[in-house]
Fold this sequence. Notes:
- The structure is a single chain.
- The chain is α/β, with parallel strands linked by helices.
- The chain has four domains: 3-147, CATH 1.10.150.110; 158-246, Beta Polymerase, domain 2 (2-Layer Sandwich), CATH 3.30.460.10; 252-327, DNA polymerase, thumb domain (Beta Polymerase, domain 3), CATH 3.30.210.10; 339-580, TIM Barrel, CATH 3.20.20.
- The chain has 25 helices and 17 strands.
- The strands form four sheets. It has a seven-stranded parallel sheet. It has a five-stranded mixed sheet with strand order 2-4-7-6-5, with helices on both faces. It has a three-stranded antiparallel sheet with strand order 8-9-10.
- The longest helix is centred in the N-terminal third of the chain and has 17 residues, at 3-19.
- It is globular, with a radius of gyration of 26 Å.
- The mean pLDDT is 92.
Amino acid sequence: MRNAEIADALDELGSLYELDGAIVHRVVAYRTAARSVRDAPVSVAELARQGRLEELPGIGKTLAEKIVALLETGTIPAAEKLKGKLPPGLIEITRIPGLGPKRARRLYDELGVASLDDLRRAAESGRIREVAGFGRKAEENILLALAAGADGRPKPRTLLSRALEIAEALAGALREHPAADRVEIAGSARRMTETCKDLDLVATARDPEALAAAFCELPLIAEVVSSGAAGVRAVTNNGMSVDLRIVPPESFGNLLQHFTGSKAHNEQLRADAVRRGLHVSEYGVLDDATGTTRSCATEEEVYELLGLPYIEPELREGRGELQAARDGTLPRLVRVEDIRGELHCHTTTSDGRNSIEQMAEAAKARGYEYLAITDHSASHGFGNDVQPDALRAQIERVRALDARMDGIRLLAGSEVNVLPDGSLDYDDELLAELDWIVASVHTSFRMGEREMTERMIRAMEHPLVDAIGHPTGRLIERREPYRLDIDAVIEAAVRTGTFLEINANPDRRDLDERNARRAVEGGALVVIDSDAHGVETLANIRYGVATARRAWLTAESVANTRSWPELDALRKRGRARAGGR
């Protein structure tokens, strides 16, 4: 049994417990265990055979016993017991976008909705909007999801951070093999899309058969579909399909370009080539005039033959990059190395895992010039909120550490909650003591578009708010953005001098690439923040930068590519001081 199947069973058990009204800690335990199993780099079934399951994070004796039972019998007794108490269709309902165990249970209790057919009938008859916590928009979203073919089965896509962990491990293992010359990740993972359906690797090798055979034996590989000197098709333990292509060195560039570009990019590239009397494919570039086919060892050679400069992987989406390449207007994209400071992170004062000093040392080790400590405010709503007196003590701790720490500027900040009326959950006197303020929505997500937009704009109009954190509130594949007039928000950001955040948490990447591009084209500045809750997640900045690059952003469009004095001069308080002089 693959890791993905084991994880699905644990997720299902968590949903069953939640449907049955179990305490939240039990539900969270199964969710955490499912994530740990799904992300494990080795076969969990093999760990079970070796009696090593408890080495996995979040797996204790009881959960290990349940996994062993699943592997031995194909089922978990506790799950079967719960299934006997609940209608079988409820689990499918929990997987519809916008629903979940609690909301599915409410529909069952109040409307008798026990299957997808029941759900469709209830939505079509207008009964769901009458249930507390739903409304007309929720009903419309359910109908749209059902019309789009949602059937309660998990979506067959993997979050980029998890996909890259697998892809980089596979590529790294291949690079260490003596037969390998060059190995690169291709496909959507190289374009840094938000999620990936499968993985592509391109390699050259002195002994292709040996490299293919070694790939088949890697611990991450659960099943080999086909294998030969030209490559391998396989499935990983977590259920991702992997295509390894092994080519001669002189054709490496052709194949890497072909397998990296999106369908739209490659179609446009081929059409453009035909107008020039050329035919481009994964095998080479055919010149109609001479009848010869040119192989390319690098991607740069491919684009050069087509009369184009090199196009960065993140831009290869068919969104105008070919015209920009022809016009010489491709942007010089922002890089991780351009980020000079982190402006959104958490410590043990709220829900972080490390102290202020540990976060500061980790940020300094990354080469950052400044770090804002922005623990959650008084009404975050998920526990560990920081009440006013605790924030005052936090400010003193940050100031004291800043005074004795060389090489980095520490800023006393907060991630304040934007209340439903657009006000903030600290008084202005306390807010004025802070060096940096990120305002974010953490509660009351289901407001109408007009109300949510007005809420956001009022927060931006506050003279002390520096940035809006994760502006649309979406969680990739888990929660839809809240309803927001993004153009009005961008206009207000420009008018008020408020930065908009690209939150680099790989589950968020919010603003997304389309809205980030609209924001900058509309005249707004963005900040890219990791939203780190531990020293290790400061590295998540790579996903925020990836979003910015996919949005065509340069370093000039990102405020925290500047030194702190330069950034300070751009924000409301800095401009107010300059005007006051």
